[in-house]
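User: My advisor asked me to double-check a structure prediction for 2-oxoglutarate dehydrogenase, mitochondrial before group meeting. I don't want to rely on an old file, so could you generate it fresh from this sequence?
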Amino acid sequence: MNRARMLSKLLSQAPPGTPLVAVRAWLLSGTRSMASAPPPPTALAAEPFLNGSSSNYVEEMYTAWLQDPKSVHQSWDTFFRNATSGAAPGQAYTAPPTLAEPTPHHVPLSSLALSPVTATTPATMDGKTIDDHLAVQGIIRAYQIRGHSIANLDPLGINTPDPKNKRGLVVRNYMERFQEGDMDRAFTLPMSTYIGGREKTLTLREIIKRLEDTYCRSIGVEFMFINSLEQCNWIRQKFESPGVMHMDEKEKRLLLARLTRSHGFEAFLARKFSSEKRFGLEGCEILIPAMKQVIDRSTSLGVESFVMGMPHRGRLNVLSNVCRKPLEHIFTQFIGLDTGDEGSGDVKYHLGTYQERLNRVTNKNIRLAIVANPSHLEACNPVVQGKTRAEQFYHGDSEGNKVLSILLHGDAAFSGQGIVYETFHLSELPQYTTHGTVHIVVNNQIGFTTDPRMSRSSPYCTDVARVVNAPIFHVNADDPEAVMHVCNVASEWRNTFHKDVVIDLVCYRRNGHNEIDEPMFTQPLMYTRIRKLKPVVELYADKLISEKVVSEQEVKEVTDKYEKILEDAFVAAKTETQVFNKHWIDSPWSGFFEGKDPLKATPTGVHEDTLTHIGKRFSSVPPNASDFVVHRGLLRILNSRMEMVNARTVDWALGEAMAFGSLLKEGIHVRLSGQDVERGTFSHRHHILHHQKVDKSLYNILANLYPDQAPYTVCNSSLSEYAVLGFELGFSMTNPNALVIWEAQFGDFNNTAQCIIDQFISSGQSKWIRQSGLVLLLPHGMEGMGPEHSSARLERFLQMTSDDPDILPAFSEDFAIRQLSEINWIIANCSTPANYFHILRRQIALPFRKPLILMTPKSLLRHPDAKSSFDEMNEKSIFQRVIPETGPASQNQENVKRIIYCSGKVYYDLIAARKDANLEDKIAISRVEQIAPFPYDLIKEECMKYPGAEIVWAQEEHKNMGSWSYIQPRFATALSHDRLITYAGRPVSPSPATGSKKTHIRELKQLLEDALAL
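Assistant: Sure, here is a fresh prediction for 2-oxoglutarate dehydrogenase, mitochondrial from the sequence you gave:
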């Protein structure tokens, strides 16, 4: 008889009237011990449990019994023997005297749908007793799942549930089953709870009390959605175990002192600068002790460096009392002094800092950085994560044990800004994880003037965190000791599981959106109640005085001591004559600028032997891996690469690989990130080879060029532009001696990363003295692919450049590098692989760092004319800002009637059309490779070669887009307005490209005719 038929027969043997609850208790006990299994009930075959049916468990035991009859309970052994011997239906079962007590340890279940039961149950136990035990188990589970929904979280008392109804809401009307007399009955506690500590039984009254204390007081714990039993049990133990929230007198005194400083700082600023916006922390002063507790506990667990991001509210307090930034530096920001160094600066509550100090609680040195951030946008979230990941990478902290990111959020922004969701989804990706972030939400229960009913659709502002199984700890901010416990648990969670965790500080905002705002206009009831509330520092001081932990005199002394510190710093600040933006740098590069000529770059050309070696390795299958199966199409690509190397030529992909490889040889880490960058959107790069027959067997070619090279990181990102670009920006800020690149799948898609581009990349150095060498590769070109796959919006980047179109800089020997040092970023549209090679290497060769915006090609990746010789990349070669005409027209300059300037792919269209029109000696075509900063010197020199020629700018973009608006006034300035430059290209348009292939071809034909017309 086969096993399936045998199983069917076994199930038919179940005797009538066998209690289903007995097998239910066993199935849910968490032990699943074969030897403790109860006999099968009548309805066994029809009752599904735990992602399967009970019949699956019978089959498991039957299989085990076949191998070893002693591996199952004696009753099952008897049952199987009788059934297989041919016993009549209903006769194989023999009732056991008892159900054995399960083993006292947790074994993960395959589902968390129901909680375990571990009570010893006599076989003769009546159904009501068993059902009562299961009901108690259901009550415990109900508190664990929904207790947070009726916890006392709101300091204002506005959203506190009615205590008369809350039990019924949470525990599913358990009193319908239990009478008052049942409240003192003892019940055996299941293994799904830790409320008993060492006690195995409690009365129902005590069970309810302990559950209420754990889940319905000042802390609301959301965790039962997590799909790991180990993690759920860990959280249960941290919150349910008796006495877990105990604080000794020393800890309480420290907490009061920290609250006093937090409150005192805000009160001092309110007195001294009453008309200034500062976005103070009043109403959530507990944030400072909370952050310090996270730092203290994490430091004790081994963390040495903390990278933090936050919105404007409370930033100055955090800078002062968490990071210990000198108070004089903060006060000078209010006084209104002129800056004594570079940069335009930013408002004081957007600034960052970097501090190294001793943690006096743990007696360990720590590093703290707060990343500068624009307002409430949450835009700093991925920047913090990228910076954290980079610190971990360069410190060899592969598990995140030494470097921790802490992100602060506002409640309205946490649910309202999509970047929060994008950043959460980076948290578990191999090349983007920071191994857990501690999120702290300053939950004002209101946005600017918008209450939660209007600002989100979810019950909590933190619900977005559930997507990554992050536990969420809601806590009443007016219960300081509860907050400290939550902070300890959050720190330990991150240290244990290396996953994100959220602390939701439910508080209020004592003032309006800022200190001069009137909140009563829109929230009269809320602010009527707020006006009557005591600050939390007073509430806690009163509590400790009543507990005789401190005296009123001691409270006053602590307050007066900090007040004197503030006054002394205020007096010192008034003696300052200038403020210095350099004091607010969040990413200092120690030693990078020292000993360098600020206007001298190292050469970008490399020895031909290096080019050949890299080219050959990049064109080969993995060495010493004869069993590594490469795709046949890739073998053809590798062979064609090798042919190019032998011919001393490179295409775009090979030129890029040589730039990367030569930097890696020099010890420069290269990181390339973006959507599909490993292969390349246009299937041109193939930096990672995939074994065609073994999953996850990969070969990173450029990571294996030299035995002592720097690491090469190439990583496909999530389908995100905003978060991933922010992440790479943060990564680039950490180490100046690294080439960090983000590539858009299509250049058009940088639209969704515009916030990072505007707020951080374009203006970061001016606002925050933050240099970055980040490179943006943006595939760009009008090729008939429609409006969403054509333009990288070159005009937007050019509009944000900081060079003046009306001022002609003084030409000098160091003119080119001086321009680079003074501009906010570099924008280029290279037309040759060699120039691409040089401009990438120049990012590292410069004695400073500037973002590089590169319009990269699509069709040119395989264009037969878009190739370069090794001669253009060797030691004698350099980056060419302008590539002049070198054909027949350059040999007969007096006869040239027109000189066309262009940039990028359109050059190849123009030279083909010029050749077809037989105008190679009449029209000169020059390429502007570096558009910004504008190459005034070379443009002027090139124009002077053709004194009688008409000057034309030709571009493939529409007239109101592309480079035209940028280059037109600069050409005029370069030529002292003596010669006109005219436009040849597409007319103005609200859309970057047509969606019609036929229209595209017609537009291109007209463009070429206009450009070549004489």
